[in-house]
Each structure stands twice: as C-alpha cells, then as structure tokens.
Amino acid sequence: MQYLDEADSRAVIGISMSGEIAVRLAADPNNRIRRLVTLVGAAYDSAAFEAPFGPAFTKILRTPQSWLRSVAFEQIASFPGRLTVVRTTEDTIVPATIGELLIANA
Q1: Which of 10, 26, 38, 42 is the most exposed place for a label (fewest CB within 10 A)?
Q2: What pLDDT sits at residue 4?
C-alpha cells in the first residue's frame, strides 16, 4: 500500500457538485494543494452547506442565482497554486459564469 508523502504538495480535481469543495480544500494552506482543476465545477450559497441533503438543500440549490453567494469566489483569491477551469458554454445546470468568476477572482 502507498501513502501520501506528508511533505509533498497535492492536487485536487472538483467535478460538477464537488467543484466548490475542491476550491475550499485548495484555499486552505494546511492542505498543501498546489494544483486545482474544476470540471464544470458548481458553486453554492453558503446556506447549502448548513442544510442536510433533502428538500431544504434542493430548495437552496434551485433558488435562481443562489450560487452567487458562494464563498468559493472570495476563497479562490488565496489559492497560491495553479488553477485550471474547464467550463461549458451551454450547460443549463452549472452556468459558465461560475468558471468565469473563479478565474476573475483567482
């Protein structure tokens, strides 16, 4: 079995719903993440992180443009590593603006 080297930097990839989780992990310097990739990464109103999965969570996600209240856009500014953002231009679930805002704030 192989283990992570405690001294090495790390990379993280966030795909769709895990996009914001990846940003949050990368923004924390204790995680030593130096490479971040988001693939059509979503962002969420901070209230979604307090709600359990279920109707309350879904209601928050379905609130138009609630993702604009995501802390990911401010947290990405503290990420010191390399960022790759893959976004679509016509996705009806994850707006391309999320990727654009990540890049603009990085």
Answers
A1: 10
A2: 57
* Burial (CB count <10 Å: 0-12, 13-18, 19+), residue 29: exposed
Q: Which CATH superfamily is domain 10-105 in?
A: Alpha/Beta hydrolase fold, catalytic domain (3.40.50.1820)
Dist. CA 71–CA 65, nearest whole Å: 14
Nearest to 103 by CA among 9, 37, 48: 37
Q: What is the CA radius of gyration of the chain?
A: 14
DSSP string, the chain: -----TTS-EEEEEEGGGHHHHHHHHH-GGG-EEEEEEES-----GGGGTSPTTHHHHHHHTSTTGGGG-THHHHGGG--SEEEEE--SS-SSS-HHHHHHHHHH-
> Would you list the domain boundaries of the chain?
10-105
- What are 40-80's pLDDT values in tens digits? 999 999 999 899 999 999 999 999 999 999 999 999 999 99
